[in-house]
Amino acid sequence: MDNVTIKDIARALNLSTSTVSRALRGSYEINPETKRLVMEYAERLNYRPNPIALSLRENRSRAIGVIVPQIANYFFSQAINGIEAIAYNRGYHVIIFQSHESFEREVTNVEQSMARKVDGLLISLSSQTSDVSHLRNIQQRGVPIVMFDRISDEIETTRVVADNFSGAFVATEHLINTGRRRIAHITTQPWMSITQERLAGYKAALAQYGVPFDEELVRYGGFSREEVQPVVEDLLTLPNPPDAYFAAGDRLALGCLSVLRQRHISVPDQASLIGFTNLNVADMLSPALSTVVQPAQEIGQTAAECLIELIERKQKGVEFKTVKLPTQLIIRESTELIS
């Protein structure tokens, strides 16, 4: 059935158009059974809201701004897929911006979002962002914000994240259980939320298994291969170099693997390697890369749902919350058991 309208659904279910409209928006004023009937019928007829008509009727843009560090990053591309799926089904446009890991560009992205009069903003902070006053300013203007993946505690809002602590704990625990004791942790800028949470999980696993924490084995840096190379090279010059590397991101892990190959260090025979995020080519590397998987698409979907809830204020007194989604350890060749 082409060009299905709210009137068509209302006529078929013997409901008023206003009831159908509110049910499709998830309004708390409509009872759950009516919502279910309307949603099921709308899905069966492949009904999709008309964002332009909705924006004219409601005097809103029906647009959501999304700011990510880099679309080419597999995690963020999957998160955007999740965001767009939810937004499309709820009648919202998605306007995507990239900060390219730059604080200045992130601020510009926020300004551009406001110029386009978005109804709300989804953002994952750049690696340079430690000051979130630009976000606090637009929040004070009444624009809802939801942070995802890379977040800040400096602003009170809803956040959607992976369980970084648990993911780092099980990754480190796995390396310990395969016989490793000199486990280096290569991570990102120390002020980033993901850095702090994954470092805490790494430390907790070492402590639980009685492995002494060596601050010399924790190295901070950027995401590019050029930034990772000197970090790994320096670790290899230690009198007692690492026998395992836990990289806080798969791009860091790729840079680490490249250096180990150049130095003819066999993985996993001489050193194990594990990443975090699960690149779509992780299983095609040689050796296949063990990694911690974040539910990227689910994070995007949940973040979009939370933002639309804030925008539409279906319930009075909406409280900000932090949603933490579980990670999964995928074991491959790069961390095989040593004899």
Overview in brief:
The chain has 339 residues and is an alpha/beta fold.
Map the helices and strands.
Elements: H1 6-13, H2 17-24, H3 32-44, H4 51-58, E1 63-68, H5 74-89, E2 93-98, H6 103-115, E3 120-123, H7 133-140, E4 145-148, E5 158-162, H8 164-177, E6 183-187, H9 193-208, E7 218-220, H10 225-236, E8 244-247, H11 250-262, E9 272-277, E10 290-293, H12 296-312, E11 322-325, E12 328-330
Parallel strand pairs: 1-2, 1-3, 3-4, 4-5, 5-11, 6-7, 6-8, 8-9, 9-10
Antiparallel strand pairs: 10-12
Helix pairs in contact: 1-2, 5-12, 8-9, 10-11
Oligomer: single chain
Supply the CATH class of the largest domain. Answer: Alpha Beta
Q: In CATH, what is the homologous superfamily of the largest domain?
A: Response regulator
In the CATH hierarchy, the third-tier topology of the largest domain is known as: Rossmann fold
Structural class: alpha/beta
- CATH architecture heading of the largest domain: 3-Layer(aba) Sandwich
Catalogue the unreliable spans. none
Radius of gyration: 23 Å
Report the span from N to C terminus.
64 Å
Q: What is the total tally of β strands?
A: 12
Keywords: DNA-binding, Transcription, Transcription regulation
Domain HTH lacI-type: 4-58
GO molecular function, one term: transcription cis-regulatory region binding
Protein name: LacI family transcriptional regulator
Structural write-up:
The chain is α/β, with parallel strands linked by helices and 339 residues long. It folds into 3 domains: 6-47, lambda repressor-like DNA-binding domains (434 Repressor (Amino-terminal Domain)), CATH 1.10.260.40; 57-161 and 296-325, Rossmann fold, CATH 3.40.50.2300; 164-294 and 328-335, Rossmann fold, CATH 3.40.50.2300. It has helices at residues 6-13, 17-24, 32-44, 51-58, 74-89, 103-115, 133-140, 164-177, 193-208, 225-236, 250-262, 296-312, and strands spanning 63-68, 93-98, 120-123, 145-148, 158-162, 183-187, 218-220, 244-247, 272-277, 290-293, 322-325, 328-330. Strand 6, helix 9 and strand 7 (218-220) form a beta-alpha-beta unit.
